[in-house]
Every structure is written in structure tokens, then in C-alpha cells.
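Protein folding task:
====================
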Amino acid sequence: MPELPEVHTTVVGLQSVLPGLVITDIWTDYDSKYFYGKDHIKDPAYFKQFKKKVKGKKIISVSRRAKNILIHIEGNLTILVHMKMTGHLMYGDYKKSSLAEVKAGLDTWVAAKPGPLADPFNRFIHFTLSLSNGKTLVLSDMRKFAKVILIEGDHNSHQDLDLLGPEPLSHVKSWQEYKQIILKKPNGKMKQVLMDPYVIAGIGNIYSDEILWASSVHPLRSPSSLTDTEWKSLFKQTQAILKDSISKGGDSLSDYRNAFGEKGGYQDFHKAYRQTNQKCPKTGCAGIIKRIIVGGRSTHFCPLHQK
């Protein structure tokens, strides 16, 4: 699942191209009976109203809250996109295949030119916004888990956003503040607490493993057991690792691609995540990276230096 650095990277890319453009058309092939009667474009009735309200509106700006992309448009409206497990938003030149091409097994939407957008990982397109400059914003979502809804009015008070925890980069200014935030779940497991978006926003499976490895904190430790020295390290490494991944364009070990269909580079710098049975890269450590399951999620750590 795209985490804070990946969503941030996407938002920066979209903010550089979308403001001022008008949404001229909207398309989706999402349709799931599970979502019928719910506020979700996978309900055809909801999508019909979504399209009516969004078509013809100008895009004002693009922002992020936790792992949610927020596309702000005219009329005090916000399109919320949560990319979930395999989704990513991309902008560029696309064309819609003819009915005959679709019947012949071709994808409904395809990149109009060779390049990153034509990457096979980018071809699972299930939602599009056609734009006034002839470009298209598309959502590629292989497993079809992504969420797209329309928020009317103050987006900050919407149920998908109002209970989220603080942003680790922009809201948390000191290790003492970080400590108090995480201690909202004093007896939880550090791995799970770091991944809880209602405690702190945007940290998922990749970065929780990397942060705990760099801080020498075992993923099963409870927040209440950490010393101030460990809290200082945890805060420092959280800031450093998230910023480092942003500088590298995010992590594309799995499906993630940025707003222009390009891979990020952070996957080449993992120290713990998916490094099972590899020698621990920490200087002077002779440990071997181990994998366990914590809260239903794969967790990678060094049993020697993470205490």
C-alpha cells in the first residue's frame, strides 16, 4: 500500500499540473454490489451523482492527509482518493480503446505514447478524469480496492479524515511530543501502534519496519517500555526515513508509480523490510533479519540489535 512518502510524491506531482484545469468528463468501470447504497463510486447510483457534481468544475489544488489524496475543486468540493493496496494516480496522454478493441481483449484505457505510463503495472485503469488540456488523470488499481468519494463542504470534518492522528513530518515537532502521541496506546505493540492511522498518520508496513530497525527497537515492545533515549532515536529516525524516501520518490518494490508513471527508488535502500534471512546491515551487528507476523502483517527486524 502506498504510504506517506508515496502519497506525498504523487500529490507534489499532481499539484504541479492539475490546478486551473477543468474536469470535462468522468469515467469508471467500478461496480460492486457490496458498495450499493454506500457513498462510493463503486455504487453506480452514487457515481451518477458524483459525475453530475464534478463535471465542468475547475481544479483548485491538490493536498494530502495521511494516505488520502485530496483534489480540491470549485464549489467547495473535494475528491478524496485513497489508493489502498495497489492503486496509483497518474496524469498524461491517454486514449480510450474502441469497443471492438475491448472485445478483442485490449484494455479500456491505454497510454497514448511510449514511456513510463505504458509500464504494464500502470494498465489497470478503473477511473478517469478527462481534463480541459486534453490530458487525463487515471487511477490504476490492479486489485480494485481503491476508494474514490466526493466530499461537499469542509473536508477536514469528514468522517474519513477528522479522527486521523497527527502528521509525523508537519505536525510533530519534538521527541517529547512524539512520545506523548504514541503513548496513547501504551500497552500496544510498537509495530501496530506506528501503523495505526488514528495514532499517527501515514506510516505503514514498510516504514514501521525501517523506523524500528534504525531505532534499535523491537517491533513487539510496548510504548510504555521505551526509554527517553529510545524515544529520541525513534523521533529522529521517523523524520529522517520518511524524508529520505520522499527524496527518492517513494518506494516501488510493489505496484507504486508516481503521478507520471515512474518508479520511485527507496526500495533499493531497505535495511529490514523484506530482507528476511539477510545479514543485518547495521555496522558491527552479526544478526540475521527475521520475519514474524504482527497484527496480521509481515514484520521484518533484527533479533540481535533490536531490543
